Amino acid sequence: MAAKPAKRSRPASGRGDGLTFDPREALTTLRAADPILRRTIDSIGDLNLERELRAATSVYAALAESIVSQQLSGKAAATIYGRVCALFPGGRGGPKPAQILAAPDAALRGAGLSRAKALALRDLAERSLAGEIPTLAVARRLPDETIIERLTAVRGIGRWTAEMFLIFRLGRPDVLPVDDLGVRKGFALAYGLPEHPKPRALAAHGERWAPFRTVASWYLWRRADRG
């Protein structure tokens, strides 16, 4: 797992719908665009991003799990999410919006949710019932920035969480999470910098990686893992 800001964690592994691009084309493009990144790619080896994709029954379900998981280790997040699901009949696949709205605060807090997370789940549920959260089928057709705009309207969902949805749930090719500490750390290590780049500087450099900034990000995460 890559290094990260305190409030962020990368999704765990689990097969999703698959990548929406050709990995071979992505690697060829990145190697030609950036000699330093090419050395990192060659050092790390095969792109295994597809193995890290996660399936989702719906955008709502994916966001609900993301809200519960914020600021927690993978094991703690899974435990608390399991407790939340166990509150509801048939909740193994995730609580439904109406169930969240009908649940007493005491029940949600008793499952291990903070007040902020309980409020975020209720906001997500309300927006889902109001039709503001796109279905997976619709999300697959929307541009990245449109998805980010719609998801970040939900209480507790920031741009980073939306970007992780794009990468690990939808397999989008051109996402560069410039606020992610792991990506910034990997960049500093790969490019021999004394400190992590500022998000704006990373975004500017990353323009040369388009339209495969997701793949560049994955290799920077792996470079950060190596330290």
Report what the structure shows:
This protein has 227 residues and is mostly helical. It has 14 helices and no strands. The chain is elongated, with a radius of gyration of 18 Å. The termini are close together. The relative contact order is 0.18. The N terminus is likely disordered.
Average predicted local confidence, pLDDT: 91
Number of domains: 2
> Termini separation (Å)?
12 Å
CATH class of the largest domain: Mainly Alpha
Radius of gyration: 18 Å
CATH fold label of the largest domain:
Endonuclease III, domain 1
What does the largest sheet look like?
A: none
CATH homologous superfamily identity of the largest domain:
Hypothetical protein, domain 2
Uncertain segments of ≥5 residues (pLDDT<50)? 1-16
What's the total count of β strands? 0
Helix/strand layout:
Blueprint: H1 23-33, H2 35-44, H3 49-52, H4 59-69, H5 74-86, H6 97-102, H7 105-110, H8 115-129, H9 136-139, H10 144-151, H11 159-168, H12 181-190, H13 199-206, H14 213-226
Helix pairs in contact: 1-2, 2-14, 4-8, 10-11, 12-14
List keywords for this structure.
single chain, 227 residues, Endonuclease Iii, domain 2, Endonuclease III, domain 1, 2 domains
